[in-house]
DNA sequence: ACTGAATTTATAAAGGTTTTATAAGGATAG
DNA sequence: CTATCCTTATAAAACCTTTATAAATTCAGT
């Protein structure tokens, strides 16, 4: 439930909830749902969503009051989705603390874009995918690798090789496959390149290059990262 | 000019500018105006507005390109005001970095409320647009950089390059990407430009230009700022 | 299971090539 | 005219490839 991309939908219309659930799920968000104001308030507290989509026309509590209550403690984005299109309602909602206001019927693409805006603003910067193996950390999007938090000086080829093996942790990769992926189709038979580079990598990555724990060799086949 | 509640309007329609000027002034904002994209970009740099209202239909540069250029350094809210109401335009603008999107004709009360939301949010996440790296400070909105509190004399290209790398601290940026961002799409293969400017920057920024600690080279790939 | 030969692997080190750093002069725009 | 950018030239550094040799592993025949 405490997913980092969880969105809470508070809306009494089953059809809308269903539409949003499908659309948002398809775009990688996890969904929580509530059909009343009371339920919505309690779910916001328990599921800690990164964003709330709130309908103003709820059966029990007025939407603006729900918004006000939420804003007493909930600091992340709230997007209003409502049939009420009067300027007065919009201004009120925005001034109480909504981040955005869309009138039904809405365009799903636009809603998704506005959700991205809201989340972007509330988060600032997002983290990148990092492969971690004990003292070794490989940051694929930054093209950097660290051992004991110290930046390793790897050449481009060395990094490609390390990343390829690490991405396939535990799997044996054949010489040919590695050569094809790192050097290109024309180098499938240059097995010696691979040996030279593996040795260089081990010097930089392993605690004891003579007894490798990460870059393991499978004699006659290829190499394997980790266990 | 450097009023704390200065709003910049970039719109070629005189009537709209006049309407906004009256409305916003009546609500306590100071106004700067520009009628072309080029003028808007330079005014954004000089008048440092807390918020920018941008029309997409400008006579000289496409509004989306103005938005993109602004977002290279301008971190405060940008609200789009446009006659274009297609979902595609809205999504594009929001994803490029707009905070909100209103279609003309708009309701002034709603615009005012959305301005309040935007300013409220930008103050909440009051990130100063100054990047700090030890003795080096880079002020994105002023287009200035200081080393040991002394202003560095950087050309516009040098600053763009430094800012781009600094904004992506720790990440390896490829030659092509840097050339595209700083010089433009047509310069992707002019790697030597980059080398020349990196050398110049290192002379100004590094303690020992021969042993760079900030502007690191990743041979065969590109450059990386910091560790 | 042991031995020795054959195969495969590890590693250092020596060219050779590509990439980078830097200075300096010419071109250009404001 | 001046600041900035572009271009060229050349030396230095980094990187890749190749070679050589020792070590490890596999395997066949006993």
Give the key terms.
homodimer, 41% helix, 12 strands, 2 domains, DNA-binding, four-stranded antiparallel sheet
Explain the overall architecture.
The structure is a homodimer of 227-residue chains. Chain A folds into two domains: 6-123, Response regulator (Rossmann fold); 130-225, Orthogonal Bundle (Arc Repressor Mutant, subunit A). Chain A has helices at 14-26, 37-47, 63-70, 87-96, 108-123, 156-167, 175-182, 191-205; strands spanning 6-10, 30-34, 51-55, 78-82, 100-103, 130-133, 136-139, 144-147, 150-151, 172-174, 215-218, 222-225. The model of chain A has no long low-confidence stretch (mean pLDDT 93). Chain A is elongated and about 75 Å long. Chain A has 227 residues and is an alpha/beta fold. The longest helix of chain A has 16 residues, at 108-123. The two termini of chain A are 32 Å apart. Chain A has a five-stranded parallel beta sheet, sandwiched between helices. In chain A, helix 2 packs parallel to helix 3 (63-70) and helix 6 (156-167) crosses helix 8 (191-205). The interface between A and B is medium-sized, with 28 and 30 residues.
